[in-house]
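So, is this right?
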Amino acid sequence: MKKLFKNQWSNIIFGVLILILIIPQTRKPVQIFVNKILSFSPSVTEEEDREQLADYNWVLENTNGKRVNFADSKGEVILVNYWATWCPPCIAEMPSLQKLYSKYEGKMDFYFVSGEDHETTSNFMKRKGYSMPSYRMLSADPKPMDGYTLPTTYLIDKKGNIVIHKVGAADWNSERTRSIINSLLMEE
């Protein structure tokens, strides 16, 4: 009997893991945890491969219902993050984005863009203790940006070049990312 149980131990663990992933109440926390573990600093796009924003014509709405024009950020370092409250990789990277936002608020512009209603995103931000500004799109985003896959994040330099284009969760508060942002902020 002991030998039989000992040989089946891996099958039991596998069965429990499958069960955890099937149950909705446990699946999302597990997915968030795994995404946090697998999140690394995003890669910088080589200079010769960087795409440039076609324009800055993009109208957004903040959680207070005020219209915001993305064109006001022209000439600034910008981080655009497409996210949703139901997206485990988005939730996994939010703590690092909040730390980055706290460090660089007022030095660069941040746009956390969700397709969800303001009440949903505001409640999520309050519940998690985040102070990042959330927006909803009122017009199409400037190309080549798109938020079809969540999360997708862009770091844009002062000239409108996309320095980082990251699809999936990342550690945005890494020393490497902060170093890149610091160098972009010093550029004329």
Notes: The first strand starts at residue 59 and ends at 62.
